[in-house]
Amino acid sequence: MERKPRPFWGRRWHPSDVFKLAVLAAMHMLCLFAPFCFTWPAFWVGAALSVVTGLFGITLSYHRNLTHKSFTLPKWLEYAFAYCGVLALEGDPIDWVSTHRYHHRFTDSSKDPHSPVEGFWFSHVGWILDRGYLTEKCGQASNVSDLRKQIFYRFIEKTYYFHALAPVPVLYLAGGFPFVVWGLGVRVVVVRHATWTVNSVCHRWGTRDWDTGDMSRNNWFIALLTFGEGWHNNHHAFEWSARHGLEWWQVDATWGVIRLLEAAGLAADVKLPSEAHKKMAFQR
User: Fold this and answer.
1) pLDDT tens sequence across 41-57
2) What phi, psi does 77 have (nearest 5°)?
3) Does residue 106 contact residue 140 with C-beta atoms inside 8 Å?
4) Residue 284 in 3-state DSSP?
């Protein structure tokens, strides 16, 4: 049951909330120039960077590797993929991983960082702009000691915005304003909204193969948009699994990449649910 929506304007705004709102507004404003700055090179740069930051950065690195430890990588490759996630402008690894671990610990409860019980808007994007409320619900990021022990992640946390915005001059020098519009604005908006639909849409609409005790849903359309993350009910049933599309017909591009990395000897300790795990789970 939904609660009264969290006030958006009539509350205390943390400085980081203001900055994030400004960045989001700037990215969406850049998209307004997209029809007037369209070139095929700019389009393909945006598409390529969407895969680099969305698949390699967010779904493979931030989510399945760092948050759930579904597989291991050599440190040089782990850090390279994590840096791709930094370029997605969804937060530094420590912040992202901490929030998602809290989501699984408190799924769809009053302490869930982006629970849909507080409304679709809040679960989609409102929670990102309310740092004080997240701290009030979950406390400080005390569940990422594994990342805080590593100097690389501490360094990225302290210098995050420099790295996140570093592509701007690179894109401009490579292809002018069209590359900035499509390689930054359009790409960031598409990847971020796609990621957010897992929090909002996949806790409202779709099918349920497993009784997970929460509102998670499998949504094939969101799975296509998010490189396999839309098989969200499967994920909540076996959150440690490197594979989210558990059936042969459930397209999971991220799992395909993990399989290739494993075949190349770069991914190890790949975790998958066995038939025994599935029988013990609450299948519908």
Assistant:
1) 999 999 999 999 999 99
2) -80, -40
3) no
4) coil
